[in-house]
Amino acid sequence: MSIDTIEQFQKDYQLRLAPRTIRAYQSNILQFFEQTGIPFQEITRKDIRNWLMWLEEQGYTPTTIYTKLIGVKTYFKYCLEEGWIATNPAARIPYPKLPDKVPIYLTKPELTQLRACVQHSLLERAIVEMFVSTGIRMGELVAMKKEDINETDRSIHIPDGKGNQGRIVLISLESLQYVQAYLASRTDELPYVFVNHNATKRIRHQKINANFQVYSEQLGFHVHPHMLRHTFAAHLAQKGMPGEAIQQLLGHQRPATTQLYARLFNHARKEMYDKWM
Predict the structure, then answer these.
(1) Distance (Å, rounded) from C-alpha 137 to C-alpha 175?
(2) What is the mean pLDDT of residues 5-21?
(3) Which residues contact 149 (CB under 8 A, 6 or more apart)?
(4) Is there a common fold for 3-81 and 108-276?
(5) Domain limits of the chain?
(6) Gap between the Cα atoms of 120 and 22, Å rounded
(7) Nearest residue to 19 via CA among 135, 137, 131, 139
(8) What's the CA gap between 27 and 22, in Å, rounded?
(9) Structure pTM?
(10) Domain named Tyr recombinase: which ranges (predicted)?
């Protein structure tokens, strides 16, 4: 194994992928080489298949194995592009079949209950509305700045989405009004849309997660921020928006995520169909 090639891979991909994704790829690549013990120039397709079998024997789930394989595939593709290897041993390795699970999302009555649960706080209601109306990720929400919001056309620029791919998302008029009311209630000069209780810095992931834990206890059913991203996608599917358009709004790149939301899309549309029949 050449640590130099992994470090160079990390440097060249740091502008293409989110830092957390890069770290995960690096960890998976290192695990691969530690388990195989073979120099990267000598790796064959069989070595990769044996590693996948080893992961399965160790009890890793198909979803985790899928994710690990993405990192290894991306690395060897990079090695080929750089001319370090003559052929890509990972190119024709198929991804493991993922379980046919549908992401959990809130029904409209459950969403109504959640909104009632946060009605006491402008900040918390604005955060819930932002998640539900835009489908953005937690990291995108906490990093969002006031300048990213275009109130005229009710759009939000997400400059550093996952994979450093910027995109535009839309927000409903009602949700925007909650965000505007929250911003109007503040007296600080911080550039962030959502700030902590003392208005000294942007709100933290941990605080939002803690709030959602409280909501779950009060509501009697589990709810977390990423579930609202699923809810956003499912409700758009039920209204008839094409799956490809929903994926663009969500900023998808990974094949596994695309497949996951394709199942959600089909499930949500079927639910709507069954209500009409």
Answers:
(1) 16
(2) 82
(3) 155, 156, 171, 176, 179, 193
(4) no
(5) 3-81, 108-276
(6) 39
(7) 139
(8) 9
(9) 0.61
(10) 101-274
CA distance 158 to 96: 32
Give the residue from 123, 149, 153, 131 showing the smallest Cα distance to 250: 131
CA dihedral for 52, 53, 59, 63, sign (positive or negative): positive
Q: Average pLDDT in the 10-22 region?
A: 80
Amino acid (1-letter code) at residue 263: R
Q: Which of 123, 109, 140 minimizes the C-alpha distance to 229?
A: 140
Q: pLDDT tens-digit profile of 76-88?
A: 999 999 999 999 9
pLDDT class of 150 with cuts at 50, 70, 90: very high
Please state which CATH number belongs to domain 108-276. 1.10.443.10
Determine the length of the chain: 277
Task: State the Cα–Cα distance between residues 202 and 190, nearest whole angstrom.
Answer: 8
Taking alpha carbons only, the member of 62, 16, 58 closest to residue 34 is 58
Mean pLDDT for the chain?
86
47 pLDDT band, cuts 50/70/90, is: very high
**Domain 3-81 annotated CATH 3.40.50.300:** no
> Can you give the pLDDT at residue 251?
75
| CA torsion through residues 100, 101, 103, 107, sign | positive
Task: With both helix axes pointing from N to C terminus, report the angle between 3-13 and 62-81 in degrees, rounded to the nearest 10.
Answer: 90
Distance (Å, whole) CA 69 – CA 51: 10
pLDDT digits (tens, 9 = 90+) for 49-101: 999 999 999 999 888 898 899 999 999 999 999 999 999 999 999 988 876 66
Q: Token digits for 92?
A: 């024709």
Q: Are 215 and 223 in contact (CB under 8 A)?
A: yes
